[in-house]
Design brief:
With about 100 residues, this protein is α+β, with helices and mostly antiparallel strands. The protein has 2 domains: about 1-70, 2-Layer Sandwich (Wheat Germ Agglutinin (Isolectin 2), domain 1); about 70-105, E3-binding domain (Dihydrolipoamide Transferase), CATH 4.10.320. The chain has helices at about 40-50, 65, 70-80, 95-100, and strands at about 20-30, 30-35, 55-60.
Amino acid sequence: MAQRVQVTLVCDIHGDETPGTETVSFAVDGTTYEIDVCDHHVGEMRDAFAPYGGRVASRRGRRSSTTTGVDPAAVRAWARSKGIKVSERGRISADIVEQFRADGH
């Protein structure tokens, strides 16, 4: 039996159901932390760390099937059937995923 597990990111800063778009990693005093944030807050975090020469690493797209909640293979197959150009590998644009969902998937 196959199982499909979907993980939906929620912005940890908002504390409500605002969708998260990235998992951000950062370290302080040798301890690494991860936080899921929306586009607005990831910018704020990068700006906050910038004066200290720090880098905020993100994993946008790295968990594409779980982050978007869709199966990348299904999105690619759907896009091809609609004549939409989509890459064979890598990140699928948010616009294509949005069209996929709007088409009832």
